[in-house]
Amino acid sequence: QAELVESGGGQVQAGGSLRLSCAASEQQFDNFWMGWFRQAPGKEREFVASIAWGGQVKNYIEAVKGRFTISRSNTKKTMDLQMDSLKPEDTAVYYCNGSPNLDTLKRGVFSYWGQGTQVTVGS
Fold first, then answer.
1. What HEC string does the chain produce?
2. Which of 33, 40, 74, 112 is the most buried (most CB within 10 A)?
C-alpha cells in the first residue's frame, strides 16, 4: 500500500514548462517501477511515462517524447516529471503510481490513486 501526493500543476501557455512531483510512502518503493498518468476531461486515464527501479530505464508515450523527462529519488521516495514545450493536448489531471510489474503499471490497474494535480495549457 502506498500514499501518493502529486503536486506542481498549474496553468501555463503553450510552450511553457511545469515540474510535477510525486511524494510516495511505499515500503517497497525501491523495487517498484514508478509512473505518471493523466486524465483529460471526458477521457480515460492514460499512461504517460515510467521509470525503472534504479532509474536506468525510462519509457514515454510518443506524444511526450523529447518534451517530458521523468526522474526519481529512492532515498527521498519522490518522483518528478519535468514538462517542457507544453501543448494544449497535455491538459489533464496528472497522477502517479507504482508497481513491481511494468505491464501492470502501464495498464494503470490500481486500487488506490492520489488526488492528482491539474495541468492546464492554453493556446
1. CEEEEEECCEEEECCCCEEEEEEEEECCHHHCEEEEEEECCCCCCEEEEEECCCCCCEEECHHHCCCEEEEEECCCCEEEEEECCCCHHHCEEEEEEEECCHHHHHHCCCCCCCCCEEEEEEC
2. 33
